[in-house]
Amino acid sequence: MNAKKLKARFSVLSKLSFRHAKKKASVQTEDSRAKAAKEKEGIGFAESVNEIFREFKEEKLRKERFAVMGVGNDLKGDDGVGFYVVDRLRKKLGSDDFFMLIKTAMPEDHVREIKEFAPTLLIIVDAADFGKGTGSMKVINDYEISEAFISTHTTPLTIFLRLYNADQPVKSPVTMIGIQRRSNEFGQQMCGQVRKAGDAVVDIISGLYEKKLLGTMLESEIERRSSVMKRIGSRLKKK
Length: 239
What we know:
This protein has about 240 residues and is of the alpha/beta class. It has helices at about 5-60, 80-95, 110-115, 145-150, 155-165, 190-210, 215-239, and strands spanning about 65-70, 100-105, 120-130, 135-140, 175-180. A 5-stranded mixed β-sheet has the order 2-1-3-5-4, with helices on one face. Helix 6 packs antiparallel against helix 7 (about 215-239).
């Protein structure tokens, strides 16, 4: 084969090789682009999911959380009003990630649980003796606790509050609602006046929670409702 023919054949082979290489490179480029697009899409999806979770977490932190602890013993007459309030709130509000409900005769057992929940406000409901008419409601101040709550619990509420506020730079808000008891004798039924007060507390807490006013208006509404109930009671006695 002369040099001229060899040169012509070489030229043809070179062109074929170039075309094959170009086509292969084009396919690889398309594959790379497709792979990059998929990776980008995957990254975008992951970022979207992370953003959703981040927003959910931030929203959960922004939204106020409340805990209601009913303290007492439902086998001892009016001392069961705290349990009664919690049971009724559970029926009215159902399951809610921002609302914790606890019934206990030993509040000190729930210190860690409540701290981890980190409520905006802890509400304690218990039968009390502050010298008013049966079924009266009152927001109990810190200095009144030892006298108002004749404790049927393992430890006084003052001990619970001390444990609850321990190791916290800022004192956690706590509202204690006392309902004047008539009897806490074992085996007695809760009296009508105390039950009615329990219903009022349930209505106040659930109503303010739904209106997003529980953290700001609970104490004033308890006092207002207590005054209304007192006036109604006085009128009924006069009749």
